[in-house]
Write a structure and sequence with these properties.
Radius of gyration: 20 Å
Strand content: 5-15%
Number of strands: 3
Helix content: 40-55%
Largest sheet: 3 strands, antiparallel
Number of domains: 2
Shape: elongated
Bound molecules: iron/sulfur cluster
Distance between the termini: 19 Å
Strand order of the largest sheet: 1-3-2
Length: 226
């Protein structure tokens, strides 16, 4: 059993800085909307939002699952990030996929060497067709991991790219997960670890569901921990 509640465990870490600012207000509104059919503990919701500046490894897997599921395919991350950084292996894979030499691909992309084995490529990305990625099968890590990578990079400021429409949805879902865990801890601290381990697996298994269906199940869990 944890001596502190899961949220206090995060919020009371040495050097912890709460997540705040405009983004926090937007996530609060979205979360209240997502939880509108249940009576929730507002203090837990506020603490859970403050806690967003710290994300565990298990939760990162959840975020990655979520992003791949709810990405709208708007293409804004192919147009408005300014530039993306890729490594030599990724550039080699892209060249091979496009049946081009490494040198030719580098020239075509006007890839700027950064001196650390990485290259910078300006956007808008030449592989974006307006609807999809022409190199989907070999797209680099920076694209595969977006927007989770953006969320993790800016945890301390809470300032994220405004053009990605799913960042707030992802963070709101994480807030709901933490609110539910807090409730479980308060109701049954003895069984908390067992329940949350089971829960974490279940939440990941929800990745096949739509976000609406998943939120519905999470809210059901909120009302009935079994
Ligand atoms: S490589 Fe594909 S996913 Fe990445 S920025 Fe270009 S078009 Fe978008
Ligand atoms: S900006 Fe966000 S929602 Fe749009 S394609 Fe990129 S990851 Fe998906």
């Amino acid at each position: 059993m944890l001596s502190k509640s899961p949220l206090d465990n995060i919020l009371e870490k040495p050097g912890f800085k709460p997540f705040s600012g405009k983004r926090a207000f937007k996530i609060l509104e979205l979360t209240k909307n997502n939880l509108k059919t249940v009576s929730y503990n507002m203090e837990d919701v506020l603490k859970s939002i403050s806690s967003l500046s710290s994300i565990s490894d298990k939760e990162i897997s959840l975020l990655v699952n979520l992003q791949s599921q709810i990405c709208t395919g708007c293409g804004n991350c192919c147009l408005y990030r300014g530039s993306i950084d890729i490594n030599k292996n990724e550039l080699l894979k892209i060249a091979s996929f496009r049946n081009k030499s490494y040198k030719k691909m580098k020239q075509e992309l006007k890839a700027i060497p950064l001196g650390n084995g990485k290259f910078r490529i300006q956007q808008p990305c030449k592989f974006f067709t307006g609807k999809s990625c022409e190199i989907f099968e070999v797209k680099p890590f920076t694209c595969l991991s977006y927007p989770t990578i953006e969320i993790l990079k800016n945890l301390s400021t809470g300032i994220y790219d405004d053009f990605c429409p799913i960042i707030n949805d992802i963070l709101s879902e994480l807030v709901i997960k933490r609110v539910i865990e807090e409730k479980l801890y308060k109701e049954n601290p003895e069984e908390f670890n067992e329940i949350t381990e089971k829960w974490k697996k279940e939440i990941l298994s929800y990745s096949e569901l739509s976000q609406k269906e998943r939120l519905k199940l999470m809210i059901l869990k909120y009302n009935n921990k079994d």
